[in-house]
Specification:
The structure holds two protein chains of two kinds. By secondary structure, chain A is mainly α. In chain A, 67% of the residues lie in helices and 3% in strands. A two-stranded antiparallel ribbon of chain A has the order 1-2. In chain A, α2 packs across α3 and α4 packs antiparallel against α5. Chain A is globular, with a radius of gyration of 20 Å. Chain B is of the alpha/beta class. In chain B, 41% of the residues lie in helices and 11% in strands. Chain B contains eight helices and seven strands; from the N terminus they run ααβααβαβαβαβαββ. In chain B, strands 1-5-4-2-3 form a five-stranded parallel beta sheet. A two-stranded antiparallel ribbon of chain B has the order 6-7. Chain B starts with a helix and ends in a 7-residue tail after the last strand. Chains A and B meet through α2, α3 and α4 of A and α1 of B.
């Protein structure tokens, strides 16, 4: 493989990563705002997961998560703190996907219907969805986020990293 | 593109910063938003603690057993679940026939029997049981001032929401009970607005007593 080929492939990958970053950002802004504009609905859906039983914690999750997702989306779209934001999204998406899976399995068992026929509003902002589609979508979001954590998608960023890159110590002056 | 250890530490620090700043901004956005949630409020009161139903029956309508309806006859377990849910919360259930009877009772016009709509404002304006008061259990502050004195004076209070697994009517009933309305006077119409409109019963649109009434002949059974 020649250097020119490598550069071309890298450029294509970088362009794809930037597009993925924008798409991920736009997705989270859209989903976040949809939930933020109807927090009561999101509160009811959050409650259905039966993960917290303290009203304050339940309210805190329902009140902050939609806005937090919107902010993460904006950071990705503008290219600020990209890797930290993407890592945060991975940390949010993995447990959430597990919760969706757990609830889907419970419904699958309760109603004795095929797993992929299970359909419910998972509180993602898109209304009722078929579970297999939702799980595939979440896996894709996780993969894209991990890709961005790896450092791709630096082009057209306002400030890709909040902290300046560490430089290797200067070599001792030669005598 | 493997990360070096210090680089990964930077990413984690960046993520923590995003979380802290994001949480702060999210709380601020929730506080500013007119639809924001009050963090200290229990929006689902009485979910864990069941209050026993008063043994004394109500003056006119006795609590219904399982309420069969066109919506629920095919799935009796849902009706049973509804009855059980209300029982667990110490609430009394009304079926459609009982609710209709109360609606046509002359005492309804005198506000001795009061209907409470627990759905949000938009749904209420689209159509509600004529004369029903709106009481959104998630934003009750403004409406409770008007509704509570009427309910305290009323002989019977009928609360409804969409019906089925909608628990907003339960929340309103508990809200009223906690505010001082005797529990034995409070009833939850389990079939809710969906069943009411499916049976083409009278509806009122817009504000309460707007005079804009119509039969719900355009609604389709679900």
């Amino acid at each position: 493989m020649t250097g020119a080929q490598t550069t071309g492939k890298d450029k294509a990958l970088e362009a794809a990563a930037v597009a993925a970053r924008w798409a991920l950002g736009a997705f989270f802004i859209y989903m976040g705002l949809k939930k933020a504009l109807d927090p009561v609905d999101f509160l009811k859906l959050t409650r259905q997961y039966d993960i917290v039983h303290t009203p304050f914690l339940l309210n805190l999750i329902a009140a902050t998560l939609p806005w937090f997702e919107t902010m993460c989306g904006m950071l990705l779209l503008t290219g600020v703190a990209v890797r930290g934001t993407a890592l945060t999204l991975v940390a949010e998406l993995i447990p959430f996907t597990c919760l969706v899976l757990r609830r889907a399995l419970a419904l699958h068992t309760l109603h004795s219907i095929p797993f992929c026929a299970v359909k419910f509003d998972c509180g993602c902002g898109a209304g009722e969805v078929f579970i297999c589609r939702k799980l595939a979508e979440n896996c894709l979001l996780i993969l894209v986020s991990i890709w961005l954590v790896s450092g791709r998608g630096r082009a057209l960023c306002l400030r890709h990293s909040l902290f300046p890159p560490r430089r290797s110590p200067a070599p001792p002056p030669s005598l | 593109m493997p990360h070096t250890k210090p680089e990964f530490k930077q990413i984690i620090l960046e993520a923590l910063l995003v979380i802290v700043v994001g949480l702060g901004l999210s709380l601020a956005a929730n506080a500013i938003s007119s639809r924001g949630l009050v963090l200290s409020r229990d929006y689902f009161p009485g979910q864990t603690k069941a209050v026993p139903v008063a043994p004394k029956p109500a003056p006119v309508v006795k609590p219904a057993p399982v309420a069969p309806s066109p919506v629920s006859t095919n799935e009796p377990s849902e009706a049973e679940l509804l009855t059980q849910r209300l029982r667990d919360k110490g609430l009394q259930e009304l079926n459609r026939a009982q609710t209709e009877k109360l609606f046509h009772d002359p005492r309804t016009r005198e506000e001795r029997i009061v209907f409470i709509d627990a759905r949000d404002e938009d749904h209420y304006k689209d159509g509600h049981i004529p004369g029903a008061f709106a009481l959104d259990p998630y934003h009750p502050d403004r409406q409770l001032e008007t509704v509570l004195p009427v309910c305290v004076e009323a002989e019977q209070v009928v609360v409804y929401c969409t019906g089925g697994d909608c628990e907003d009517s339960d929340t309103d009933a508990i809200l009223l009970r906690d505010a001082g309305v005797p529990n034995q006077r409070i009833f939850v119409y389990g079939g809710g607005f969906t069943e009411w409109s499916d049976f083409h019963l009278p509806l009122e649109t817009g504000a309460r007593n707007s005079g804009l009434t119509n039969q719900s002949n355009q609604s389709k059974p679900k």
